[in-house]
Specification:
alpha+beta
Length: 155
């Protein structure tokens, strides 16, 4: 389930492009406190999206089928371009990160997928966190839920 969701989210977000048709998001990975340990972390290009799976509680429906509401947290990392203060030369560049967050939120709304073993649908934003204490990298957070139905099969 996690691998399928992870890869599906990446493929969906790769569809966000700039006016020249290039992908807007340049780095995708699983969340591993990349911003906290930036000195030890492998260098990554921004904007970046790191995907975190929140704890899941499953309900068994019967016949080897389980269902859960799954929460996924996106850590969206952008480069800080300068002050957003009114009158600042960098105000527009600094506020561009909010446009990216809106684009991601709108693009993922109602996102769904299936691979014949796992189905997910009703992708919805349920929380947002805006970083107000940053240095050169800004980490904003968006939480989403989706309904997942997973068929448990013996290997």
């Amino acid at each position: 389930m996690r691998k399928f969701l992870y890869l599906s989210i990446i493929e969906k977000l790769k569809q966000l492009t700039d006016p020249d048709g290039n992908p807007v998001i340049r780095t995708f990975d699983l969340w591993n406190e990349q911003v906290e340990y930036i000195e030890q972390e492998e260098v990554f290009d921004t904007p970046a999206v790191f995907i975190e799976f929140r704890p899941v509680t499953w309900t068994t429906l019967g016949g080897g089928v389980q269902r859960a509401e799954v929460t996924i947290r996106l850590h969206i990392i952008t480069h800080w371009d300068g002050s957003a203060r009114d009158g600042s030369l960098y105000q527009q560049q600094s506020l561009d990160r909010f446009d990216l967050l809106d684009r991601i939120d709108h693009h993922l709304f109602n996102f769904a997928g299936s691979n014949r073993r796992t189905d997910f649908n009703m992708f919805r934003r349920v929380g947002s966190g805006t970083n107000h204490n940053h240095e050169e990298l800004v980490e904003d957070i968006s939480d989403y839920t989706c309904m997942v139905v997973d068929a448990v099969r013996k290997e």
